[in-house]
Amino acid sequence: MYLNCHSYFSLRYGTFSPEELVERAVSLNIGRVALTDINTVSGVFEFTRACLKAGIEPVVGVEFRNRQQTLYVCLARNAAGLAEINRHLSDYLMSGRDFPLRPPRFEHVAVIYPLQQFDRLGELAPHEYIGVEPKDLKRLWRYRNRVCEDRLVALAPVSYPNKVGFSLHRLLRAIHHNCLLSRLAEHETIEEDEYFLPPANMEYAFHSHPELLQNAQRLLDGCQFRFDFESPKNRRLYTPSREDDVALLRKLAEDGLLDRYGPHHPEAIRRVNKELGIIEELDFTAYFLITWDIIRYARSRGYFHVGRGSGANSIVAYCMGITDIDPIELDLYFERFINPHRTSPPDFDIDFSWDERDEIIDYIFKKWGRHHVCLLATYSTFRDRAAYRELGKVFGLPKAELDALVADPSGTPPGEYTKYILRFAPLLEDFPNHLSIHAGGILISEEPLYHYTALQMMPKGFPVCQWDMYTAEDIGFAKWDVLSQRGLGHIKEAVDLVRQNRQVSVDIHRIQDFKRDAAIRRQLEAHETMGCFYIESPAMRGLIWKLGCSDYLTLVAASSVIRPGVASSGMMREYIRRHHNPAETVHLHPRMGELLADTYGVMIYQEDVIKVAHHFAGLSLAEADILRRAMSGKFRSRREFIRIENRFLESCRQQGYPEETIREVWRQIQSFGGYSFSKAHSASFAVESYQSLFLKTYYPLEFMTAVINNFGGFYRTEFYVHEARRSGGHIEAPDINQSDWLTRIDGQTLWLGWSLVRSLENRTVATLLAQRQQTGPYRSLEDFTRRVGAGLEQLIVLIRTGAFRSFGHTKKELLWQAHALLNKATQHPETGDLFQLEDIRYALPPLPQEAIEDAYDELELLGFPLSTPFAMLAVPSAGILTSDLLAHAGQQVVLDGYLITYKPIRTKNGRAMQFGYFMDREGQYFDTVHFPPVMEKFPLRGRGVYRLRGKVVVEFGFPSLEVVQVEKLSTLPDPRHAGEGLGGGGRLPMAA
Question: pTM value?
Answer without folding.
Answer: 0.85
